[in-house]
Amino acid sequence: MSGHAPVLLDEVLGLLGQAQCDASLPLVFMDGTFGGGGHTRAILEKFPGCRVVGIDQDPAARVRAESIENDFQGRFRLETRNFSEMGKLRDTNLTGVLMDLGVSSYQLDEAGRGFSFRSEAPLDMRMNPLQGQSAADFLETASQGEIETALRDYGEEAGWRKIANAIVGVRGTGILQRTSSFAELVEQHAPRPSPRRRRIHPATRTFQGIRIAVNHELESLEAALPAAFEKLAPGGVLAVISFHSLEDRIVKRYFRKLAGRPEGNHDFRNQDERQALCGLLTRKPVVPGDSETQLNPRSRSAKLRAIQKF
Q: Is 99 in a helix, a strand, or coil?
């Protein structure tokens, strides 16, 4: 199966199918992270007569959307914007919203985008290459503290301090401008991998952390979740697939807050201080089975959570 296969597809369709909105409302779904359109196409096929609004900040998604526009004329619309801006859209009373977080397979596989250390390219990493700083510019100009946060917190890199020092030390040399030279720098200063992790490139966590920082992914998620919930009709479903522990933590805490439950171990509010606005459709995250991870290794770290609006 291609790396472009939509993750947890059957599980997503099953959860969206649990929506119980007023029968007088049209079936309208929002795919907040269109990517290659795999989830969108499956939703259009699964729910006859429904409409889907796709969102993707990557201008390249427009080309990938053309076949869906042609195959489902009048039932699909693509918005080129960050999903954190979905509150600006006119669509309301949605049946369901799906958000499949992280970088898309198309972006990873396109060498020139600079997301992967496996391809020689400018170190860019922007999901929207027309906005913001490239990864190279971030590394050249950010404070050492900002770089340390990206490595330690976003990348969960154990050798964050040594790698951050090395990054600051080579500024202006050109090493931070290309994927290959940057990956080599990281490999020289990263801790030696344990036997269990030797198949994972030493630069994996650093590249992930820098990508999250450059694209402001966690901040966008924190803005997108309430915007998505607001868009739902009563009985509508919000489903989120995350691939990183920090993303999953944000989703889990927000869903528990909406459900009137403690957000974490240190939430000691009384029950009368909470308000239940939704029900949890997944008490624990749904993860891919062995068959899916074997066919699509990129699905290994996926976690799916969903709620239903009261």
A: strand
